[in-house]
Design a protein that fits this description.
5 helices, 8 strands, 4-stranded mixed β-sheet, alpha/beta, Signal recognition particle alu RNA binding heterodimer, srp9/1, 2,3-Dihydroxybiphenyl 1,2-Dioxygenase, domain 1
Amino acid sequence: MQKIVPFLWFDDQVEEAMNHYISMFPDSKVVNVMRYGDVGPGPKGTVMSATFQLAGQEFMALNGGPEFKFTEAISLFVNCETQEEVDELWRKLSEGGEGGPCGWLKDKYGVSWQIIPTVLGEMLQDLDAEKANRVVQAMLQMSKIDLAALKRAYEGQ
């Protein structure tokens, strides 16, 4: 059992969001779904809460109503190995949502994600401050991260 589990509060879209997310990541599955019964407060048969895994990471989610909204103060950071992975996840997660700066996006449910190539962290930590600074400057111009453009900046091209 995972000791710390992110808990996501949705208005009433848990089942839809969970299935949407599971379709994008390998090693993902529904673990458990609890549905409302006769006593509510939600309509009988609808999802009250769910536990699911995305790429092996466990999450819990609640259909808690409209009182709370997601903000960028918490985001889900996704390490991507290739530009193709960045492109695919960006397309799927931003559909119906909105892109943000530097690899951030907000999905159609309001959840914030960072879709980041793993090599970006390596470039930013380079001991050559000029290389790292060029990468930062390039990244600041991007919404979806362009790995080839980052590499050009890193190499001073």
